[in-house]
Amino acid sequence: MTPSPPRQNRSPITHTHPPHVFTTTQAQAEPEARGEALQQLSKPPHSMNAPFLTLAGGSPGSSKDSMDNKDPPMLPAQPRVYAARYHQLALLCALILTNAVVWVAFSAITPATAFVFGVSSAWINLVALSFQICFLPGTVVGYGLMERWGLRATLLTGGVLTTVGAALRLISLYVPPASYGGGSGSGAYVLLLLGTCLAALAQPLLLNLPPQLAGQWFAVKQRDVVTSLAFMCSPLGNAVGVAVAPAFVGEGGEGGHGGTSARDGLRLFLLVQLVVVAATTVWAWLGVKDRPPSPPSRTAALLVQQQQDKQHEREQQHQPSIPTWQALKIDLHRCLVLNPSFRLLFLCFGLGLGFFNALLTLVGQLLSPCGYTDNESGALGGIFLGTGLIGALLAGLILDATHRYSLCLKGGFMGAWAASLLFISALRPDNFAFLATSFALLGFWMLPLLPVAIDNGVEITYPEAPEFFSSGLLLSAGNLAGLPLAALFSVAIDRYKGSCRVFWKPAAVFVFCVTTLCAFPILVYRPERFGRWEAEKQQRRQQQQQQQQGRVGEGGEGEGQIGEGCGRV
What we know:
The protein is an all-alpha fold. The protein has helices at 34-39, 84-103, 110-117, 121-133, 135-148, 151-172, 186-207, 210-217, 223-248, 262-287, 298-317, 324-336, 340-361, 363-367, 374-402, 405-426, 432-446, 449-461, 467-494, 506-519, 531-568; strands at residues 21-24, 53-55, 75-76. It is globular, with a radius of gyration of 27 Å. The model is unreliable at 1-76, 178-184, 252-260 and 565-569 (pLDDT under 50).
């Protein structure tokens, strides 16, 4: 098979080498010109042409024959994990959580915030929507950083952007509006929006990293649960931000601390945010690393070896690195054009994540016509999040134990669809207990779909596309879909006719249609392979075969020595 076109490589990694080592088979040949790379985009990526690790000096076609008869770089024979991996996970989780707090900081105090900045509530809502608008541009920026500089630089850039954004938001409260009580507050608001957009650009740099960090630091049996835990830090941060904000700033323009003004309460709230975000970024600066000293799995070792081989070949042939925009175009073509399974996942998951974002954004507006208070809406949101965290943890454990990626994805979508039907039937006045049960089931089935879908996307695009790119593409689809879905959902809610007791309300019809369009197409999802997991299994089979051949060789040598002894006698 003609090799897939290359993409820009990260800086090579060196390792210390024990006596028994693995090497790779022949490195994929690089196209000599950009035109050849683009022509190869028509080649399907599904038959994996990536080299696999074999025993040094082993099978025919090894890289010994391909690199001027020189010994290729070596990798450790046995994967090894380090205790520092938990520190790296804690750093990423802390940055994701603090960024999520910045995201929803004004959601629970919108009227008071609008009063302080002298704008309408719609303009304050735009501040939160900027995170969804900026997700795709931030993913492109993060892709370039990840390809050129690696995990550490990408994560630290996300932390610095969040810190600078939090600082600008705090400074905006010291810029006096033209009229404090209700006139134009354009200067302060523009600074507030600018700071929020910087934090919004940081979100994809952080939120797309869990699969990458899990693959580079954790063993095969831990990757999926680590991905689930890291992704759950974002909704957890949202919950913390919504719960904490009213403690600093009360509704209607009054502060939450002994009658202080709303502006003073906001200043204290944003100052605390800035201190926490800055401290977390400094912690990350001191502790985050690109990779462990040696790979934790065979697939991680394979990717490192591929990067070293390609870098070595480029240096020999004096070839320049592929520009980021061209590498982005190649990976985009591989995922969305040449990979039908990823394309189906992209559409279904993007629609589902967009609906999830719209539901959480408009839950108060949805429940208000049925007579439920803001406190009850908040309690239902907490139930949704609590059961969702439990479901995500269970999903990660199940995936690590079984690696049944397709089955877990389909089961999650169908469970979420069934829970949405229960939610529709429960959406009536004076029905809080039933409604709480439906929210619990919705959270349990919907929230785990986030890490499960991301794991599926990473698996079915390995090794053609990097983990950061596949996860970023899926999350960008959900954030872009969330904007029009939220607008349509809001229109459907406003079209309640008569009593809320009517079953097929416009909002209920909207929920049913969207969840059905998400759930049923995914039933035909049948990827040809799950690349990372297949690579691990193939490596294990090769290792076992080579070990068996070694035992047979040792046995034959022993029999020959016995025969020589008998002849001499």
